[in-house]
Amino acid sequence: MSGTPDDQPRTRDRTHPELDDATVDAVGRLSEALEWVERARGALYEFHQLSGRADLTLSAAIGGLEDAGHARTAAMVRGRLHGRNVLDGRWTFQIVEEYDELYYRPFAEVDEEVRRRLTGGERHVHEARMKAGERARAGRDLWGRGA
Predict the structure, then answer these.
(1) 123 Rama class: left (phi>0) / alpha (psi -120 to 50) / beta
(2) Spatial distance between the Cα atoms of 102 and 107, rounded to a whole number of angstroms
(3) Which of 51, 62, 79, 134 holds its CA 20 to 30 A away from the CA of 73?
(4) Number of neighbours of residue 104 by Cβ within 10 angstroms
(5) For the residues of 103-143, what is the DSSP string, one character each?
(6) What tens digit of pLDDT does each residue of 89-136 get?
(7) How confident is the model at residue 4 (pLDDT cuts 50, 70, 90)?
(8) Residue 6 DSSP one-character state
(9) 8: which residues sit within 8 A by CB, 6+ positions away?
(10) What is the mean pLDDT of residues 50-74?
């Protein structure tokens, strides 16, 4: 094997030429919406972790106040801040779980079902068509490796 690009295995055509552009566009938009939901979910997990880190740092501050001989001030901080809910009745882990159960999972399941019905489960058909078109206009092998 010489190691040239011609010797490398080709990626299969993922453009689904049998599908009309309107279907590919609609399925692509649904998947894009899911990508935004994924980003929102990531931000929610970041919020969860940032809030958790704040709680741990707060605990250390309370301990530091106690160690420095400020028991009354430490008690005031503990009483007003330590263990608080971030939303009424909930800590951040509960918010993350509720988001996952009520919104994220159903969204991901619907996206998968639509792709299963319309693209044989294939992801990113719209993007595959973009890649093939751009590479064809540039005179490149549509699915070959390398530049």
Answers:
(1) beta
(2) 9
(3) 51
(4) 18
(5) IIHHHHHHHHHHHHHHHTT-S-HHHHHHHHHHHHHTT--SS
(6) 999 999 999 999 999 999 999 999 999 999 999 999 999 999 999 998
(7) very low
(8) G
(9) 144, 145, 146
(10) 98
Q: Name the DSSP letter for residue 10.
A: P
Q: How many CA atoms lie within 13 A of 31 on its CB side?
A: 20
Give the 3-state secondary structure of 51-103. Answer: HHHHHHHHHHHHHHHHHCCCHHHHHHHHHHHCCCCCECCECHHHHHHHHHHHH
Q: Rounded mean pLDDT of 25-48?
A: 97
Is residue 15 packed enough to be buried (19+ CB in 10 Å), middle (13-18) or exposed (0-12)? buried
- Residue 50 tokens, joined: 């940032």
Helix (H, G, I), strand (E, B) or coil at 30: helix
Residue with tokens 């400020």: 70
